[in-house]
Amino acid sequence: MINFYEIRDQTNVKNLISALLKLVVSQRLLKSQETGELILVPEVMVVDNVIAACIRKEKFSVSEIEDAIQGNSDKGCVALIYSLAKLYVEGKLSLEQIKTQVEEKNYETLNRMIMQLNLRKKH
């Protein structure tokens, strides 16, 4: 969205977005491996000072924002990778399905999250 504006206006647009944006909810619908029904896969970004600062940076980094979302679950953020891992552990999505939704560079994070969720499930 920021790239729609002229380069000279982008700093002002970033400042405005970072000041006004409070919450972003994204959702994907994937077919359940069991029933074929559509399953909601949510991602929630609650904009705090860290995320607002990421938006204002001269070199905007989506991966920094993804990291901030993963680190802010206590503030209500829900990372896409977490939602996918949770649905996999619940048996609703296959590993092949969730890997199509995640960049290859994030496979290790995905595997760690699956292991953590499996450990919690056992206790």
Describe the structure.
The protein has 123 residues and is α+β, with helices and mostly antiparallel strands. Helix content is 51%, strand content 15%. The protein has 6 helices and 2 strands. A two-stranded antiparallel ribbon has the order 1-2. A hairpin with a 6-residue loop joins strand 1 (23-31) and strand 2. Helix 1 packs antiparallel against helix 2, helix 2 (49-56) packs antiparallel against helix 3 (62-71) and helix 4 (80-89) packs across helix 6 (107-122). It starts with 6 loop residues before the first helix and ends with a helix.
What's the SSE blueprint?
Layout: H1 7-20, E1 23-31, E2 38-46, H2 49-56, H3 62-71, H4 80-89, H5 95-99, H6 107-122
Antiparallel strand pairs: 1-2
Entry keywords:
123 residues; alpha+beta
In short:
Helices cover 51% and strands 15% of the residues. With 123 residues, the protein is of the alpha+beta class.
Instruction: Compute the separation of the termini in Å.
Output: 44 Å
Determine the number of helices (DSSP H or I, runs of at least 4 residues): 6
Task: Give me the count of strands.
Answer: 2
Spatial order of the strands forming the largest sheet: 1-2
Q: Helicity, in percent?
A: 40-55%
Arithmetic mean pLDDT = 93
Topology as a string of helices (H) and strands (E): HEEHHHHH
Task: Summarize the biggest pleated sheet.
Answer: 2 strands, antiparallel
* Uncertain stretches of 5 or more adjacent residues: none
Radius of gyration: 17 Å
Shape assignment: elongated
User: Could you say which structural class the secondary elements and strand pairing correspond to?
Assistant: alpha+beta
Approximate strand percentage: 5-15%
